[in-house]
Amino acid sequence: MDFKLSDELKLMQLTVREFVEKEVHPKEAQIEEKDSIPDELINKVRQLGLFGISIPEKYGGLGLDMVGKCIIAEELGRGCAGFAALLGSHTGIGTSGIVMAGSDFLQGKYLPAMAEGTKIGAFALTEPDAGSDASALKTTAVKKGDRWILNGTKHFITNGPEASVITTMAVTDPSRGAKGISAFLVENTFPGFKVGTVEKKMGLRGSHTSELIFDDCEVPEENLLGKENEGFIVALRVLASGRAGLAARSVGACRRLMELCLRYAHERVQFGRPIIENQAIQWMLADMATETEAARALTYQTAWQVDQGMDIIRAAAMTKLFASEVYCRVADKAVQIHGGMGYMKELPIERIYRDARITRIYEGTSEVQRMVIAAQLMKNGFTF
Ligand SMILES: Cc1cc2nc3c(=O)[nH]c(=O)nc-3n(C[C@H](O)[C@H](O)[C@H](O)COP(=O)(O)OP(=O)(O)OC[C@H]3O[C@@H](n4cnc5c(N)ncnc54)[C@H](O)[C@@H]3O)c2cc1C
């Protein structure tokens, strides 16, 4: 494995790091309060090309490989989680289905605007009765002439209110279970589409999560993504490929927590000396740093495996499971090191603690990741 970054990628890493420090960190409190991302941040991200990191250069994107995408995701994760989720859902699950399975026509139609960030992407799999058991979805798609007619409701969809292009899973053959699901590209302007309830969440402010309602929604036949009845495979591939990126965002957030904790532990004096001089605090910091390094190593190992075209089902599940659980443990210790101040809204710690929690749930819960890992072990053994 060679994680030596190209000069171009190193420059991009530094550019995004600087953007996060100079422009995102100062606006975090505003994002938290208003639950929206300021236009100037969106415009800056457009200028930097970050909406197009997953999109091939021929469509105006940066065409980064998975290691490159993780480098960017890690830096954005060190910033504001809601902003990183908006971008991560667009560049990950919102875009990758079109890149992986879209026809030349669909790629040409959607990817240039998605690379610019003038069209935002979303991925709609989950429904009220189909969460972890995603193949139990009930939204239907029936062919009528040159259109597909979609009926059903998706919920908990990231970027739902602002997305223009939604990769949507629907049942096309109810007799075949997961093998009767197809993927469609639905535009928010198609007749019969509307955004439903926008959820109020524990954290991740600035990233919006909503219902999407398909009421005799008319989708042109050419907007079938991939082959009919093979949409669930597309969905699983999209989710597996996104796991390293989500892990990278978690690692970035852990780095931020480490920085905040080290500074606070040096500055805070109790019993006449900085609290960092206590072994209890040092051991928490040592565990946090060790786990963050381990999550980082696993993330880039998996990203590298993706780039080599290796089978990453087990590795991606392990990486998402481990990095998200490390993030929650690190955030918990960060609150502890800050004592009462860790519980106060004056500092970013309590927000990061709340933001961490979702990573063990979305894009497959920790339990689902363990199910995937165990299934791979039962099928293949513990092979390398
Ligand atoms: C903020 C947010 C953003 C999201 N964004 C998107 C998005 O963009 N697109 C999208 O399609 N979805 C999205 N989701 C949905 C998310 O992927 C689901 O919430 C998640 O997969 C869990 O499904 P569920 O909420 O229905 O929980 P459930 O499936 O009801 O699970 C409840 C609990 O039971 C456990 N459980 C379930 N089955 C088993 C089992 N067999 N063995 C052991 N434990 C089990 C789960 O692990 C969990 O702990 C989002 C969710 C949230 C909260």
Structure notes:
- The protein is α+β, with helices and mostly antiparallel strands.
- It has helices at 7-24, 28-34, 39-48, 66-77, 81-91, 96-101, 104-116, 231-267, 279-307, 313-338, 349-357, 366-380; strands at 121-124, 140-144, 147-158, 165-171, 181-187, 193-198, 209-220, 224-225, 269-270, 273-274.
- The radius of gyration is 21 Å and the shape is globular.
- The chain is 50% helix and 15% strand.
- The chain binds flavin-adenine dinucleotide.
- The site of flavin-adenine dinucleotide has 22 residues, from strand 1, strand 3 and helix 12.
How do you describe this structure in short?
This protein has 384 residues and is α+β, with helices and mostly antiparallel strands. Helix content is 50%, strand content 15%.
Question: Main traits of this protein?
Answer:
384 residues; alpha+beta; Butyryl-CoA Dehydrogenase, subunit A, domain 2; Butyryl-CoA Dehydrogenase, subunit A, domain 3; 3 domains; 12 helices; 50% helix; 15% strand; globular; binds flavin-adenine dinucleotide
What gyration radius follows from the Cα positions, in whole Å?
21 Å
Strand order of the largest sheet: 1-4-5-8
CATH architecture of the largest domain: Up-down Bundle
Q: Which topology of the largest domain does CATH recognise?
A: Butyryl-CoA Dehydrogenase, subunit A, domain 3
Structural class: alpha+beta
| Tally of DSSP β-strands | 10
Ligands in the model, by name, code or SMILES, are:
flavin-adenine dinucleotide
Shape descriptor reads globular
The proportion of strand residues reads 15-25%
Q: Mean pLDDT across all residues, rounded?
A: 97
Approximately how much helix is present in the residues?
40-55%
CATH superfamily of the largest domain: Butyryl-CoA Dehydrogenase, subunit A, domain 3
Low-pLDDT segments? none
The structural domain count equals 3
Order of helices and strands: HHHHHHHEEEEEEEEHEEHHHH
